[in-house]
Write a structure and sequence with these properties.
single chain, about 260 residues, Rossmann fold, eight-stranded mixed beta sheet, about 40% helix
Length: about 260
């Protein structure tokens, strides 16, 4: 598995590459890893048509885990992503991100539109993130993780040892593997992320697909609003899905994503 050092602070960044065709980068959500794309059934159909790069974002998976919130700003994530693209000799690529990964994909697209061919945002938002981590996870989540660790993080979301079901068990396993101090720093930085100015969205001509679950509030409305502002964007609602259920099962999502990427 390739590894490079972040140009920001030397944090190790690990990723893998598979498939063949136009490049596509997959960016996972908070407290997950690149493994979700294989585990939830996305990698095989996407790699059948694309050269797929899966990145473990800093603080996640096998990448480095700094403990300072300043290491998890959008600007830092964007610089990490560009460094990985440069290391692989990828000039332009499509970006597909979920939740945190969707915001990173959007930030990269707005800051470097010449590097992005298409943007797919799954459960994403361009709004200010103050309070968002408590909405997605649970009230007091940052202090709980910092003081009590990842078992408390799981318990706060009903993902205790007794949990059943493929998605729930996989999510719990991913959460327990995380570094709690890195997660606390990440969530604190996310909570401080400001809104994207609407004029920046309106000026972005990169084709974009925004998707969110109908029960994913307020992300559903925020995604719809962002798509309405971008001149070449569409919004697709995923009926009955909440934020955690955005990606699974994959068929409905891929039914829109694959034609869009083509």
């Amino acid at each position: 598995m390739p590894v490079i050092s972040s140009p920001v602070d030397g944090t190790p960044l690990r990723y893998d590459v598979s498939g063949d065709g136009p490049p596509l980068v997959l960016l996972h959500g908070s407290v997950l890893s690149r493994a979700i794309w294989r585990g939830l059934g996305y990698l095989a159909p996407l790699a059948a048509e694309h050269t797929v790069l899966r990145l473990d974002l800093r603080g996640h998976g096998l990448s480095g885990t700094p403990h300072d919130p300043a290491a998890y700003t959008q600007e830092v994530f964007v610089r990490d992503l560009l460094a990985v693209l440069d290391a692989e000799g990828i000039g332009r690529t499509a970006l597909l991100g979920y939740s945190l990964g969707a915001r990173i994909a959007l930030s990269t697209t707005l800051a470097h539109p010449g590097r992005v061919t298409r943007l797919v945002s799954l459960g994403g938002s361009a709004a200010a993130q103050r309070g968002a981590v408590e909405t997605v996870f649970f009230p007091g989540v940052i202090d709980a993780v910092r003081e009590e660790g990842m078992e408390a993080f799981c318990a706060g979301q009903g993902l205790g040892p007794e949990v059943e079901g493929r998605r729930a068990r996989a999510t719990r396993t991913a959460f327990l593997a995380a570094d709690p101090l890195a997660v606390a720093a990440l969530l604190a930085a996310t909570d401080a992320t400001p809104a994207v100015p609407e004029e920046e969205l309106a000026a972005c001509t990169v084709p974009a697909l925004w998707m969110a679950g109908s029960e994913d509030r307020p992300r559903h409305g925020e995604s719809r609003r962002a798509a309405s502002l971008m001149p070449d964007a569409e919004f697709v609602s995923l009926p009955g899905r909440d934020h955690g259920g955005t990606l699974f099962p994959p068929d409905e999502v891929l039914g829109s994503v694959l034609p869009f990427l083509r």
